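Feature request disguised as a bug: please show the residue count (478) next to Aminopeptidase N in the output. Example input:
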Amino acid sequence: MPGVRPLVAALAAALGLALLPAGVLAGEAGGETAPRPGPSGIGDPYFPLDGNGGIDVVSYDIHDRYDLATGTLSGWTDLRIRGLEPLSSFNLDFLLPVTSVHVAGAPSGFTQQRHELAVAHRLGAGQTVDVRVRYAGRPGRYSYAGEGNWLAGAGEVVAMNQPHMAPWWFPANDHPRDRAAIRISITVPKALDVVANGRQVRRKVRGDLATTTWRADEPMVPYLAFFAAGRFKVAQGTRNGLPWLVAVSRALPTALKPEAMALLRRTPEVTEWLAGEVGPYPFSTVGGLATSLEPGFALENQTRPTYSPASLDLATLVHELAHQWFGDSVAVESWSDIWLNEGAATFFEWRYAETHGGTPAAARLRAEYDAMAADDDFWANKVANPCPTYQNCVSSIFAPFVYQRGSMAIQALRNRIGEADFWSLLRRWVAERGGATGSTAQFTALAEEVSGEDLDGFFAAWLTSPTKPADTAANGLG
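Example output, currently without the count:
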């Protein structure tokens, strides 16, 4: 007797209907994958809840209003999201209380637990939907992964931090693996200025409030998006076809304001120098912002780094602008790769000094190597794995040894493979991986390809061994 399926197939054919392959509805082997909830993390072991599996955010259109008197941020963000696999629901990273979610214009169910916003909407592989998330809350009250990132005073606010910042002011797929187009509209009292990434495209005044819109021409990863609201002095221009804009807080001490502006006005000059070293600047505009607030660091926000009062110096300016290539254009594949960002940016501090009458980078490497005894804690960590446990990741991935040993490794590599291969390596790295991510394994493989040398021992000594590298030519020291 014929099986049931052949009879059903014959009936379907007679009626002009298509019969689904066996196993599709049941999720059997050989059929399509059954929809499932999207994972609440993208797969980075350092921060298991960062990013979200199963989705790609194509664009963000952020509309936020910030009340400096109460510290309240409210508004909505429109996201265009593409499914990477069949999902029964998907997640976003966000900390503020959500009031509603709409998908394709219709209300959607959602749940929110700490850092995770789960949206109850089915999404097919390759399907793109528009999502609007509305919210309101006080960012200064929230923390995640040990970070309380909101930086605000009575008259100024700046959204700047890493490795996380976005979830304090817009819902995001918050990991460097997912970059997207970003437009930022911020509403504050009309007496205040707003500065953000890219170019200002609009400012609309309504009563006592003004909404200022900035748009970046190139996609970026979420933590590199920023805005600042306050009273700023702005300077702008064009150098060899590249538009630049810098802003200095009027709330800085009187004596510091002209120094800050003079420093930031060197941004296009330093950017041009860096382009001569490693290749074309990867974005369509450049600049910087000096805030009066003091987080204790500067940050490489894409196209417009932010500088705190304590970080207003030329070496830091070079460092943050070098990040436009190493960190912004080529983002880390995982946070364990952070030495690629910080080591390269610190190396370019050394390189700038040696090309402007300062200490040669090779001499700097030798001095720092000799200054640290073999039993110093400086050597007790792995540069390419700075966070062996989740509990101390935020502090350890930005520990001094990541910057200093990372830059030492890069200069030692320069010594080992020679000038021609070294600069070819850096230029190929930013040219071939620009707009994407890069990992330690990919960098080391490219170094071996360019140089034609077996560098396993070299990279083991500098990146994966918790001991001081031997003082040998093979390690770039002899």
